[in-house]
Design brief:
By secondary structure, this protein is α+β, with helices and mostly antiparallel strands. The protein is built from two helices and four strands, in the order H-E-E-E-E-H. The strands form two sheets. Strands 1-2 form a two-stranded antiparallel ribbon. Strands 3-4 form a two-stranded antiparallel ribbon. Helix 1 runs antiparallel to helix 2. It is rod-shaped, with a radius of gyration of 28 Å.
Length: 160
């Protein structure tokens, strides 16, 4: 069993090197969260596009010539066999045949799930940004205090 207790640390009590390390750690976490948010946004937009495609297909005429996407930039000619059922890629090589209504619901659910995850990542990103800002401010104050101390020490006459 692990002890998941969180200990609060007074940043003002940390030495300058530890504050530098902490600041760089927060910056790295911000970068990772920003990348995660961008990835989730890309996935979300692909699912939204997929839902729009299902909606468009359901309005097409059966046996009509269409272009079938093999990749995002390569299409092959085909004929629409059904406008009431589609084959959905649910990941890891699995495909499910479902009605266009069920496919719409699937894409709505997955988009809602991704949106919730994006909100969580966004909250974490804001929190890390605030922590980085506070750490930077304390670091600047400590550096200024250290510089003023060294200036005062240099200005004091040396008595022998």
């Amino acid at each position: 069993m692990s002890n998941d207790s969180v200990q609060a640390v007074d940043l003002a009590q940390l030495p300058i090197p530890q504050l530098y390390h902490l600041k760089s750690q927060f910056e790295e976490e911000e970068r990772m969260l920003t990348q995660s948010l961008a990835s989730l946004k890309g996935v979300q937009s692909r699912f939204i596009e997929s839902k729009e495609s299902v909606t468009k297909i359901s309005k097409k005429v059966v046996d009509k010539d269409i272009l079938v996407p093999l990749t995002s930039s390569m299409y092959v000619p085909g004929k629409l066999a059904s406008n009431s059922h589609v084959l959905i890629d649910v990941g890891t090589g699995y495909h499910i045949k479902m009605s266009t209504k069920d496919a719409d619901g699937y894409f709505d659910r997955i988009t809602e799930y991704i949106t919730k995850k994006m909100e969580i990542v966004q909250k974490n990103l804001i929190e890390k940004d605030k922590l980085r800002e506070v750490t930077s401010e304390i670091l600047q104050l400590k550096i200024q205090a250290q510089q003023s101390q060294s200036q005062q020490a240099q200005q004091q006459p040396v008595s022998s």
